[in-house]
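We emphasize that the prediction below concerns an isolated chain of 300 residues; any contacts that depend on oligomerization or on bound cofactors are therefore not represented. The input was used exactly as deposited, without trimming of termini.
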Amino acid sequence: MEKVAMMIKARKLFKDISDLPTIPAIVSKVVALLDDHDVVPDEVADLILSDQVLAARVIRVVNSPLYRTNNSITSIKRALLYIGFKSIREMILTSYFVDGFKQKEQPFDMKLFWIHSFSVGAISRRIARLVDYPDAEKAYLVGILHDIGKVFLGHYCKAEYGLMLDSIRNTSLTTYEAEFEFFGTTHSEVGLCLAQRWNFPPVYCDVISYHHASEMATEDTFLTAIVALADFYCLSHVTSDCVAQASIPGRSEENAWNVLNQHAPDLLVSSLEHFLSDLNEEYETISSEVDQLFNTMTTL
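Result of the prediction step, given as a token string:
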């Protein structure tokens, strides 16, 4: 019942907004097509080429330092074959999301926000590979997008969100808890509203909605568990800022750990604490990757 009330309050925040960033319908079509395991390169290439802006963006990103091509790539089909369908899906959706909020003023450091988001994406992909989740790139993408509700709240409720962030500096209260106290809803519900406006696939919406309450997920409990633990890891080990403030493991993290153990009992260490600790060994490599992604996506 509480979730319903939080969703009602989240939807009210969207009521009178006329300048909400949009993601072109063609992008949603391409992402949906790339989620189809039977899709062929020509079909995807034709759809991308039907929109000159999208095609130009794909070519620009694939030739950026992020993908380290030896020779310039000018063909959409070649770009698809070079970096793969799943990476194209992630690149397109992430670049439009970053671009949509690039000029929106925020009461928090957007660089730290993006670094946290990209870090969660990278850790989600790492966890997905450790537990044999079938689509590690999807985990990467949804990990990047999990906090989209924060950029909405930070811009469209700028004064109140700034006051809220100031109120929890040097405290143990998390952003999620403070949002509920200030707004009666959180970035999870607001993010769900935004994801629905942008016609994200249902599983993406579900992870965004429940990454702090993984026990409530319904679409893909395995994926939600992965992102929930990646977010917790990054809050605890990587980011040090009130916009992404750490907490102690709670019901969501315990449930997520149990879900991972159900799916991959022979692949995990004995405890959540050890599992999170082991991720530290990966972070130096991941940190370099995050810097590269941040520099590429924020300078398009």
